[in-house]
Design a protein that fits this description.
Layout: H1 2-10, E1 14-16, E2 21-23, H2 25-33, E3 39-43, H3 47-59, E4 63-67, H4 70-79, E5 84-88, H5 98-106, E6 112-116, H6 121-129, E7 134-137, H7 142-154
Parallel strand pairs: 3-4, 3-5, 5-6, 6-7
Antiparallel strand pairs: 1-2
């Protein structure tokens, strides 16, 4: 946990103080271009991973919700309009790429980033065939997640 917090602090895009909030130079351009905050749904069955991604994205000025499994994803997608889904490949409740197939039926134009600790060539090929916006393997750094998010939202 301490390592994660240290990593987040070193990769921080927003610097807050009690008196005011200032934006670092690297984030100023994206903050100006982004008039409304993009809504991101993060799905992982490990709470520590959900927390890491949530903190990373919040610090970069994204609106973030989390879900522990594939079943919760579908419910949340029906309730709220998201701009991006970040999902673990293996979550409890749905196996492998089935959550992506379900999401694509519900929201066909929603960009999806897959993050997995169990990458196989077959899963990577199938994810590519499903036109996911990004495919990252764990362990993953916050900067990698933010770069993948920026690319996915540009499309």
């Amino acid at each position: 946990k301490v390592e994660l917090d240290t990593q987040l602090e070193t990769e921080r895009y927003w610097i807050s103080s009690p008196a005011k909030t200032t934006v670092t130079t690297s984030a100023k351009t994206s903050a100006t271009a982004q008039t409304t905050r993009s809504k991101v749904l993060v799905v992982d069955d490990e709470s520590s991973i959900r927390d890491l991604f949530s903190k990373t994205l919040l610090l970069a000025n994204y609106d973030v919700d989390v879900a522990p499994n594939g079943g919760a994803v579908l419910e949340q997608l029906r309730k709220r309009g998201y701009n991006l889904l970040i999902t673990d490949l293996k979550t409890s409740g749905m196996d492998d790429l089935s959550v992506i197939r379900e999401v694509q039926q519900l929201r066909p134009n929603l960009p999806i980033i897959v993050i997995t600790g169990f990458s196989t060539e077959a899963n990577a090929i199938e994810a590519a065939n499903l036109r996911v916006s990004g495919y990252l393997t764990k362990p993953v750094r916050g900067s990698q997640v933010l770069a993948a998010v920026a690319r996915a939202l540009e499309k």
